[in-house]
């Protein structure tokens, strides 16, 4: 996956204030755009968190997802800042058209793979049982004999190929038309994959990551025009968009409200961690997951309200981070589970450990 940077939630009302855009055509259209962005943000968080639980149950370390440590979390805002400023410089120096052409090809490949992985579980249920499903393997090695080393070892089947073809059609649509629906399909796929496959190893790491990006988002939105400039210049599916003039212009609408994927993925991986913590408690309740999920709804709704009131781009993490950390922590204080929450840490399982656990359960 590509590195997903936190971006600013904003709309074209800011451009209108500067004389460079048009205001939403109607209050109904604006409300529809904001509501749609909110729903689209919640979908990958909810389903990505559920899928992350199964992803974390890999039988060995090779099946485990990418784990973010506290060291990674501390460095991430610095890396993200360098990347963001580098893109800003590139857009100032080089032709925006050629940069976006290269980025479009790059995100076309990533988007097709991400969308195929996203729709694969649903598509597998649609295939009939007698579907001729053949197995394939793509293997690249380096060297020979005992020194032979695997570079790529990818196994797939006929169903995966069908998903890739369908995703490829969306990818071609995006390349040719840059349509906002195609953009959103890729954006949702990136977000869901990010929440599912990027795992925080513990709650402390999550607090470090969200705290660092809290400062990052505020600085680059309020301190400079870098974030907004890059978000508007960057023609790639790194943001979800929805037209405010949809009711007037239909699918050809072009006055968009936008939400950066980072404002979905970053809080999303923390919410997914809390769901896995709920599962580890073995109480058949998802208290912390639902609390953090509702906290995200509150934070994003507050962002939209402030942005609409002041007609200015807002750093969404300014509102999301305190809500997503504060609400679950308050619940943990009430329930007396703060220590358990911060002690929870995911550990890779191997087959022997899993079989031993099953044996112990049978003996008990």
From TrEMBL:
Q: Give this protein's Gene Ontology molecular function annotations.
A: aspartic endopeptidase activity, intramembrane cleaving
Q: Which GO terms describe its biological process?
A: membrane protein proteolysis; signal peptide processing
Give positions of region: Disordered.
345-364
List where the protein spans the membrane.
Answer: 31-53, 73-91, 98-119, 197-222, 256-275, 287-310, 316-334
Keyword Cell wall biogenesis/degradation included in the entry's annotation: no
The UniProt entry lists membrane topology as: Multi-pass membrane protein
The record ties this protein, via InterPro entries, to: Peptidase_A22B_SPP (IPR007369), Preselin/SPP (IPR006639), Presenilin_C (IPR042524)
Any single Gene Ontology cellular-component annotation: lumenal side of endoplasmic reticulum membrane
Alphabetical keyword list: Endoplasmic reticulum, Hydrolase, Membrane, Transmembrane, Transmembrane helix
Q: What is its main location?
A: endoplasmic reticulum
Entry's Pfam families?
A: Peptidase_A22B (PF04258)
| Annotated localization | Endoplasmic reticulum membrane; Membrane
Superkingdom of origin organism = Eukaryota
Keyword Transferase attached: no
Q: Which family does the record assign?
A: Belongs to the peptidase A22B family.
This chain belongs to the protein called Histocompatibility (Minor) 13 L homeolog isoform X1
Organism field: Xenopus laevis
**Top-down, what is the taxonomic lineage of the species of origin?**
Eukaryota, Metazoa, Chordata, Craniata, Vertebrata
């Amino acid at each position: 996956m590509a590195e997903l940077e936190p971006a600013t939630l904003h709309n074209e009302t800011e451009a209108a204030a500067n004389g460079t855009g048009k205001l939403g055509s109607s209050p109904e259209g604006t409300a529809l755009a904001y509501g749609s962005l909110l729903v689209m943000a919640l979908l990958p968080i909810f389903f990505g968190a559920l899928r992350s639980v199964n992803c974390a149950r890999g039988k060995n370390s090779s099946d485990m997802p990418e784990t973010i440590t506290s060291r990674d979390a501390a460095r991430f805002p610095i890396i993200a800042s360098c990347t963001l400023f580098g893109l800003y410089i590139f857009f100032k120096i080089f032709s925006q058209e050629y940069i976006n052409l290269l980025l479009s090809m790059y995100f076309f490949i990533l988007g097709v793979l991400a969308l195929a992985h996203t729709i694969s579980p649903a598509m597998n249920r649609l295939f009939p049982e007698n579907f001729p499903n053949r197995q394939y393997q793509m293997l690249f090695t380096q060297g020979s004999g005992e020194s032979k080393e695997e570079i790529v070892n990818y196994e797939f089947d006929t169903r995966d190929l069908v998903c890739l073809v369908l995703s490829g059609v969306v990818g071609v649509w995006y390349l040719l038309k840059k349509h906002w629906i195609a953009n959103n399909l890729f954006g949702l796929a990136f977000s869901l994959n990010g929440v599912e496959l990027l795992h925080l190893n513990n709650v402390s790491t999550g607090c470090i990551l969200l705290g660092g990006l809290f400062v990052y988002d505020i600085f680059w939105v309020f301190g400079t025009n870098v974030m907004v400039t890059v978000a508007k210049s960057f023609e790639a599916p790194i943001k979800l968009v929805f037209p405010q003039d949809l009711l007037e212009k239909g699918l050809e609408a072009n006055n968009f409200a936008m939400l950066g994927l980072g404002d979905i993925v970053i809080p999303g991986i923390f919410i997914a961690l809390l769901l896995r913590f709920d599962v580890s408690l073995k109480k058949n309740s998802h208290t912390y997951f639902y609390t953090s999920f509702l906290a995200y709804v509150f934070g994003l709704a507050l962002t939209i309200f402030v942005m609409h009131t002041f007609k200015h781009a807002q750093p969404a993490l300014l509102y999301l981070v305190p809500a997503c950390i504060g609400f679950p922590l308050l619940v943990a204080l009430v329930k007396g589970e703060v220590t358990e929450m911060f002690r929870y840490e995911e550990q890779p399982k191997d087959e022997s450990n899993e079989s031993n656990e099953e044996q112990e359960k049978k003996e008990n």
